[in-house]
Amino acid sequence: xxxxxxxxxxxxxxxxxxxxxxxxxxxxxxxxxxxxxxxxxxxxxxxxxxxxxxxxxxxxxxxxxxxxxxxxxxxxxxxxxxxxxxxxxxxxxxxxxxxxxxxxxxxxxxxxxxxxxxxxxxxxxxxxxxxxxxxxxxxxxxxxxxxxxxxxxxxxxxxxxxxxxxxxxxxxxxxxxxxxxxxxxxxxxxxxxxxxxxxxxxxxxxxxxxxxxxxxxxxxxxxxxxxxxxxxxxxxxxxxxxxxxxxxxxxxxxxxxxxxxxxxxxxxxxxxxxxxxxxxxxxxxxxxxxxxxxxxxxxxxxxxxxxxxxxxxxxxxxxxxxxxxxxxxxxxxxxxxxxxxxxxxxxxxxxxxxxxxxxxxxxxxxxxxxxxxxxxxxxxxxxxxxxxxxxxxxxxxxxxxxxxxxxxxxxxxxxxxxxxxxxxxxxxxxxxxxxxxxxxxxxxxxxxxxxxxxxxxxxxxxxxxxxxxxxxxxxxxxxxxxxxxxxxxxxxxxxxxxxxxxxxxxxxxxxxxxxxxxxxxxxxxxxxxxxxxxxxxxxxxxxxxxxxxxxxxxxxxxxxxxxxxxxxxxxxxxxxxxxxxxxxxxxxxxxxxxxxxxxxxxxxxxxxxxxxxxxxxxxxxxxxxxxxxxxxxxxxxxxxxxxxxxxxxxxxxxxxxxxxxxxxxxxxxxxxxxxxxxxxxxxxxxxxxxxxxxxxxxxxxxxxxxxxxxxxxxxxxxxxxxxxxxxxxxxxxxxxxxxxxxxxxxxxxxxxxxxxxxxxxxxxxxxxxxxxxxxxxxxxxxxxxxxxxxxxxxx
Amino acid sequence: xxxxxxxxxxxxxxxxxxxxxxxxxxxxxxxxxxxxxxxxxxxxxxxxxxxxxxxxxxxxxxxxxxxxxxxxxxxxxxxxxxxxxxxxxxxxxxxxxxxxxxxxxxxxxxxxxxxxxxxxxxxxxxxxx
Lengths: 795, 129
Hints:
- The complex is a heterodimer of chains A (795) and B (129).
- Chain A is of the alpha+beta class and 795 residues long.
- Chain A is 50% helix and 21% strand.
- In chain A, helix 2 packs antiparallel against helix 3 and helix 18 (602-617) runs parallel beside helix 20 (643-654).
């Protein structure tokens, strides 16, 4: 810009304008003067010609008059007349020829211009015939006069016009050239960098106005330049201090600028990178595929839009190191919207990407075993389902449940349980194929997806897993545990519905396998009756939950009567539970209790029973009452750490006398959770509660357990009672249990006493209590609950 | 002796000769100009050489001169034009073109006084050096 301006100034510089003005004035005056001169000289020539002719005519006329007035003229008189005329008319000479006489006055000769006229002289007395006189008037030659006049005219005009011209030039220089040149010098000074220079705006003419306007414009320009510079400085400082790498390029993708972070990240110095293609500075690859990634600047310049870098992009630095980055590129446009470059912003995301990978890994893996977790397993199962549909291939889903994990966990603690899971994981990994997917689905539940596997081979693999787990003995300190696993298998085919259905079917199959005993497998079949029943139970789960939420359980009771009325024994009333279904019909417990037990809902039901029965009984159920309320507790509730405190708190809240309470726990539940059951019994017995061991004999447990369980009553399993009249073995067993109970100091209760024969039989054997349809049928509990403030007596 | 002085001197001489009708002087001017054109030895250059000890401006040229279309100096061309104009207007057709002779005289005087010769400028514009 500046050099170009300097050239322009040099070309139109100081001498050009005066030259133009001078030339203009010169030519104007020259043309004007020439025209005037030509016109004046022509006019002068015409005037002289006319004057010469007029003078001759006048002389001729005067002479004619003279001859008329002086018919007797004399020669001297005529000569005097000629002289007089010559002087009056300022001619050079006059020559008169009359006949053969010639008379002249003044200068005559061939060097002068002669004009001739003829004058007729009338006859007189002395001259009876008229005559003709020839008059020649001599003047200076016309060319000479004109040349002289022309010289005078031109010289005077030339001098005048020259003077006028120089005055005009001087004036124009003063008025135009000097202020213009001054402005030119100011502009030159400004253009070479002296921004303090200003045009002289003190004049009142157009130059003053222009100077004011230009000065104002310059001030505005400088102010805008300062603002732009400030903005540029701010932008540059921002770019320098920004935490992201920034690269700007021109419209051809050539690097123009790198900020310090970009220098650090790319390994290129600004001076080295400037002018190079951005693709050379920012060499990008895909971290996963190792394929080159298109530079977003190139795409941005091509498409004119903001472009973000693809995921997993890595920058190959100048030193060949790779750096995970995230970036974007945006076009830079001018006022007209044309793309003049691009800016690329990027930052190091190696840490973030590692964190994301770690999070992704954690989100899909089990922290304990490092296997896939349920979420990831379900995702892969979904893929397998899709694959089975699209490729018409089949897979097998295995659902594994460890048999002894709970014992290990309860006996040796969670650390041992965790170690067991890890070791089992190693065993499982050794038994499956590389293509199979193994995952931990829950506490002691595993899932295996056998891809592209037929049911026979899947069963073979499952059996080998069972065998391997069975052969494994888990050793923890002094303890050694056998292990076992139950496996449910489901075939994944194109007909499989969904992931949840497949998992549900596998779960059911696993339960079926578990029911077969330890280390068993079960292949799910759609028409499997057992599994359908299990599925029915699973449907009960939601119905039970809704019933609890909607308070749709009803309490019943069945009386347990003492068989020896004189023994001072009190009547018991065992609480029973019914479910009021959605249509208002009562559902017997056997319809939903198995499902509740299987799906761990018994603690919730037990809590509902305790909370509602205690509320009904209330503080009036005190020591004055002559009956004892018996409440069944499940084995799951015994294992619930918070259940004991719940019971104690409910006793406290309701004001029920604990002496009037008896809790029934089944023999199998008590034995399976011996330590917890013992503690539970001990604590509540200290409060005054009593305990009965329900269904005694059904599990064929060792009588030795009775020493550890401080129960008050043994409820002989009903299966022995109901057949004791026909089966002597059952009769003997009832007798044995009764006697042993008495020996230990525990009272006995006979269940399932359905008729008077059985009632009499158990009475004869010395059983202390009897319960069953032969004694009393179940009835609504609310009917026998003593109202507030009323006495409490057995009905 | 500068070209400006030459213009002034020649113009004054021409006008004086015309005014006083000294035809030999005018012929002399025409001959001088024609000689300068023919010999390419201008009086101004010779005087300069004599005054400045042989300093010759001929070999070098300014940028604009070097960029000229013709290798023919504008001052030499001016002299050619002047000689032709004077010859035609004074010697051959003075009766009709007397104004041209006078015009040349006044133009030379004006050029000498102002230092600006429009004809030289025009010739340079046309491409003369």
